[in-house]
Amino acid sequence: MLSSAQIPQVWQVAILGTIASVPATIVINWLPNSEATVGGGVMIIGALIAGGLAGNRSIDPGAAGLCAGFLSGLIAVSVFVLTEGTTVAWSLNTIVFFLIAVVVTLCLSPVFGLIFGRIGGWVINTIANFGGNQAS
C-alpha cells in the first residue's frame, strides 16, 4: 500500500484539490439555473484549489492543475458509466462513440486543469505578493 511519502507532491495536491472541490460543486449546483457536474466542478474548482495549494509550496501550479484535470476526466467518465451507462443500449456504434468520447475527455480535461491550475497559482502568488508589498 502506498503511503503519503511515496505519492508525489503534485498528485497529493491534485487529490486534495479534487476532494475539496466536491462540496464547492454541490453548493454551486444549488444555485438557480446551475447545471454543474462533479467532473466539471473538479476540472475548474479542483484545479484552482490544487494550483493555489501548489503556489504555497514549491510545486508547479500547472502540473498540479494538470493532474487535477486528469482526475476530473476520470470522475466524469466514471459518473457517466455508473449513471447513464447502465441504461444505454450498447451497440457497436455506441461503443465506438463512447470510446472516442472517453479519449477526448481524458485528453481535454487535463488541458483545462492546467489552465485553471495556473490561474489558481497566479491568484495565490498575487495575494501573497500584495500582502508583502503592503507591509514594507
Helix content range = over 70%
Rg, Å, rounded: 17 Å
Structural class: mainly alpha
Shape verdict: globular
Total strand segments: 0
- What integer is the average pLDDT? 87
Q: Treating each run of at least 4 consecutive H or I residues as one helix, how many helices?
A: 4
Low-confidence stretches: none
Q: The biggest beta sheet, please? A: none
Q: Strand-and-helix sequence, N→C? A: HHHH
Work out the strand percent.
Answer: under 5%
Distance between the termini: 48 Å
Quick overview of this protein structure:
Helix content is 79%, strand content 0%.
Protein model, in words:
It is a single chain. By secondary structure, this protein is an all-alpha fold. The protein has four helices and no strands. The protein has helices spanning 9-29, 38-56, 61-83, 92-135. α1 (9-29) packs across α3 and α2 (38-56) packs antiparallel against α3. It is globular and about 60 Å long. The N and C termini lie far apart (48 Å).
Give the secondary structure arrangement, pairings included.
Elements: H1 9-29, H2 38-56, H3 61-83, H4 92-135
Helix pairs in contact: 1-2, 1-3, 2-3, 2-4, 3-4
Key words describing this protein structure:
mainly alpha; single chain; 79% helix; globular; 136 residues; 4 helices
